[in-house]
Amino acid sequence: MIDIVQKGFGLVGRNISYSFSKAYFTKKFSNENFEGCSYVNFDIQEIDTFSDIITNTPNLKGLNVTIPYKETVIPFLDKLSKKAALIGAVNTIRVTKKGKLKGYNTDYYGFKKSLKPLLLSHHKKALILGTGGASKGVAYALDELNIPYTFVSREAKENGISYDRINATTFDNYQIIINTTPVGTSPNIEAYPNIPYDYFTNNHIAFDLIYNPEETQFLKKAKQKGAQITNGLDMLIFQAEKAWKIWNK
Predict the structure, then answer these.
(1) Which regions form coiled coils (predicted)?
(2) DSSP secondary structure string, 157-192?
(3) Which stretch of DSSP H or E encloses residue 239?
(4) Torsion angle of alpha carbons 32, 33, 37, 39, nearest 10°?
(5) Strand, coil or helix: what is 109?
């Protein structure tokens, strides 16, 4: 059992010792004098143990959810916000005063707020690498920005193509390339998505949701060809602050 005195928060995920959230919120609690608040990493190997977190953590007020549980956590929740239901993925959970669990998605908000200042008139279509929970928030944000998109996965799916289909024409048609996969995350920092990087130009944006390392191989390779690059740090800060507001409703 974890002893949290007044208000408990935490992150649910797998292999999350690198996590941004714990360091961010711990610093926030200290700097802004939120006494009695604590943030804990709940590193679980299977989503089936999620219920144990809820049962064994006193004064739990809110949770963040990361890879690989943004979709599989949904059946454990009592209710979803309208946007989380539409997106089909949850990265923020609020424990209500009645002890109910309500799921939200703040990924889409953070991504949209981070991408929007980078957009120019020629950035018309996006390629989303990956089809996991993080990709769903990205897709929802692109819908709100009226930017058409196509998913990329190992095998072609509905509204998607496989990696081996990406060529020069693809890069001509898609000016925003977004990595929503964990490929390239520390400690596996030499890894990168299997796409033809030679076709990046200064007309492209390369956006990696990964923030550790600060510049992934995906970003480095795109940058070498003149692309504008950005990592997921600002997105994480925006979504974290949105989560804080949700927890304190």
Answers:
(1) none
(2) -TTEEEGGG--HHHHHH--EEEE-S-TT-TT-TT--
(3) helix 233-247
(4) 40
(5) helix
Identify the three-state secondary structure at position 116.
helix
**Residue whose structure tokens are 């400690």:** 187
Strand order in the sheet with 160-162: 160-162, 149-153, 126-129, 176-179, 205-208, 228-230
Contact 47, 65 (CB under 8 A): no
pTM, two decimals, is 0.92
Question: What confidence score (pLDDT) does residue 11 get?
Answer: 97
* Cα–Cα nearest to 122, from 184, 174, 57, 185: 174
Active site residue 70: yes
Distance between CA atoms of residues 171 and 222, nearest Å: 12
Q: Which residue has the tokens 């007020």?
A: 61
Query: What is the C-alpha separation between 103 and 114, in angstroms, rounded?
Result: 22
Tell whether the model's pLDDT for residue 215 goes beyond 60: yes
Q: Do the bridges between strand 60-65 and strand 149-153 make them parallel or antiparallel, or are there none, so unpaired?
A: unpaired
Check 7, 22, 61, 70 and give the catalytic one.
70
Predicted local distance difference test score (pLDDT) of residue 2: 44
